[in-house]
Amino acid sequence: MAIDIGTGDGRGLIRRARSEPRALFIGVDAVAEAMRRTSARAARPAARGGTPNAIFLVAAAEQLPGALAGRGDEVSVVLPWGSLLRGLLSADASMIGRLRALLRPGGTIELLLSVEPTDHRPGLPVLTEQAVAELASPYAAVGLALESCRPATRADVARLGSTWAKRLAIPERRAAWLLVLKRRRETG
Length: 188
Known about the structure:
Helices cover 32% and strands 25% of the residues. The chain is α/β, with parallel strands linked by helices. It has a 7-stranded mixed β-sheet.
């Protein structure tokens, strides 16, 4: 199961669901209107272009449904903003813990993050290699190992399917970082 937090219009999720019909994809966004058209199309019967393996839920990252806990093989968060971005960049243990709780042991989280000086985001660090690397320790404290951290490429944006990232022309006009985190397997 793949869970996309902040799925926005959900188009990327639908593309992935169509290319992997045996997997379940869940798009979560706090703004119902953003997902309205895409979720309606996905709900159609498959014979009429629907995507039966894609589900959309309206929920904020701070209030994720408990039924999703421990079920995700992967979680993606692409270009978050607001409280989700603040929580991820400040390494808020509560926010990071909620994302970790979605994963099965051994599952992965992919974060595509971008903050630049022109964003005028008070209190948020501009993302540099050093700023991103400093997230490894607080993420590890909640059971997530930083597997990789690197500048995002066009291929990353295409694979994650973010309409927003394409509009921002990442990475041509705007720098972004791709972090891959893995939930540690519990022992004992």
